[in-house]
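Structure in, sequence out. Go:
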């Protein structure tokens, strides 16, 4: 029931974001086109990329929130990681496209000065996207969804990228004698987007490559296991991420002369305490080994 509620809220947030992105993309493109601003047209492309990622997540969230089944015993969270990587790649491509477009305009003569309509469109974008960022990011953290958090950062970067666009337009209007202020703004936007894409791509790539939990989490798992009565030692801990959830394997050493039932009881106690103290652990398999002494 709770999972369905989270799914509905996620879809609602994404739907609102999609509608706002499409409207802002149109407003900024028209503002840039009729207001003679290359920086604002570049910014409208960034907003349009947000619309594409909203659609990707809306489709993906229907699948990765499904519970584990016979064919996918570890759940479907890896699809969320793949979606996050797609989002990062879309941003990476957008950064190169905007930067290339701006650079190719450097050798072209400056034809016109941006108009005030471009300034108002940029300001509207800054305010709207910052509000969307806060709403999406807060909910993404609440349900621990990396894809939703990544999408929130798309909103934040869109807001931030509109700031240099805003000042580039303002500068070009106030100081028309200085050439290429608007193009410089477009280049700054591309750098912002490039940095965001790397921050989104790297964690997803690390998960695909099988990165384990941090040393602090591992130490906490070992310490918790050793504090359980009848556990002599804990070793050979292995962890891996599936989305933001951790799956782990751990060997515990117990006395060699105890019964199988006793060993099982100890293992269950270890598992229960570890998962209680580490809520990010989805599951941990405890292997019981006899003390060789």
């Amino acid at each position: 029931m709770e999972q369905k509620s989270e799914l509905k809220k996620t879809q609602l947030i994404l739907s609102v974001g999609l509608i706002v992105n499409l409207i802002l993309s149109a407003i900024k493109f028209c503002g840039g086109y009729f207001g003679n601003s290359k920086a604002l047209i570049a910014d409208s492309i960034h907003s349009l990329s947000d619309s594409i990622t909203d659609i990707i997540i809306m489709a993906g969230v229907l699948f990765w929130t499904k519970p584990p089944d016979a064919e996918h015993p570890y759940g479907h969270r890896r699809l969320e990681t793949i979606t996050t990587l797609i989002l990062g790649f879309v941003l990476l491509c957008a950064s190169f496209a905007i930067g290339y477009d701006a650079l190719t305009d450097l050798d072209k003569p400056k034809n016109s000065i941006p108009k005030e309509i471009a300034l108002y469109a940029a300001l509207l974008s800054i305010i709207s996207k910052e509000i969307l960022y806060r709403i999406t990011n807060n909910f993404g953290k609440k349900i621990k969804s990396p894809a939703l958090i990544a999408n929130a950062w798309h909103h934040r970067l869109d807001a931030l990228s509109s700031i240099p666009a805003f000042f580039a337009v303002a500068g070009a209007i106030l100081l028309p004698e200085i050439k290429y202020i608007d193009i410089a703004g477009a280049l700054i936007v591309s750098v912002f987007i490039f940095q965001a894409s790397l921050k989104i791509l790297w964690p997803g790539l690390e998960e695909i490559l099988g990165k384990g939990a941090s040393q602090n989490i591992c130490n906490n798992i070992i310490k918790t296991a050793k504090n359980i009565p009848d556990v002599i030692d804990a070793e050979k801990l292995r962890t891996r991420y599936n989305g933001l959830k951790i799956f782990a394997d751990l060997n515990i050493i117990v006395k060699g002369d105890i019964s199988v039932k006793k060993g099982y009881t100890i293992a269950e106690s270890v598992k229960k305490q570890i998962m209680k103290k580490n809520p990010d652990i989805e599951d941990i398999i405890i292997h019981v080994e006899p003390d060789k002494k």
